[in-house]
Amino acid sequence: MAMNRIQFQPGLSMPEFLKDYGTEAQCEQALEVVRWPEGFCCPRCEGAGHYVLRDGTRKVFQCTSCRHQTSLIAGTVFQGTKLPLTTWFLAIYLISQAKTGLSALALRRQLGVSYHTAWLIHHKLMQVTAVRLNEGSNL
């Protein structure tokens, strides 16, 4: 029987995950790199020059050309959330590491949030995953 490459691919241990994404600043940095790999790009005018502002706990970027402000989480699955990014990243990690799937109830227990919040996180992440899988199948 052939080896299942997916099953034996190297994963990320919990200590490694916490070392890389254990703080809000680390999660913000990782999200910024994924969102703008070449550096900030204004969604309105595509300018690169910007200022970094703080709106409460979240980074807000203001374009120097058109003065448009955009949040780090605007236009992402995290948009509109008040939860810390560390909670979202931990949810992504837990769901991706679960071999047979993870229920919203189990996610609630692991994250320490309400069932409704866990269900919404789970639902949003599953929607994004389904969309990404469908986009990948067209390649």
Summarize this structure as a short list of keywords or feature phrases.
11% strand; 3 strands; single chain; 139 residues; mainly alpha; 5 helices; 3-stranded antiparallel sheet
Summarize the structure.
This protein has 139 residues and is mostly helical. The protein has five helices and three strands; from the N terminus they run H-H-E-E-E-H-H-H. The chain has one domain (14-129).
Q: Total number of helical segments?
A: 5
**% residues in beta strands:** 5-15%
Give the averaged pLDDT, no decimals.
88
Q: What is the ordering of alpha helices and beta strands?
A: HHEEEHHH
Task: Give the helix level as a range of percent.
Answer: 40-55%
Question: Main beta sheet, described?
Answer: 3 strands, antiparallel
Computed over alpha carbons, the radius of gyration is 17 Å
User: What is the molecular shape?
Assistant: globular
Strand tally is 3
State the secondary-structure class: mainly alpha
Write structural notes for this entry:
It is a single chain. 12% of the residues are buried. The protein has 139 residues and is mainly α. It is built from 5 helices and 3 strands.
List the helices and strands and how they pair.
Layout: H1 14-21, H2 24-35, E1 50-55, E2 58-63, E3 69-71, H3 85-97, H4 104-111, H5 115-137
Helix pairs in contact: 4-5
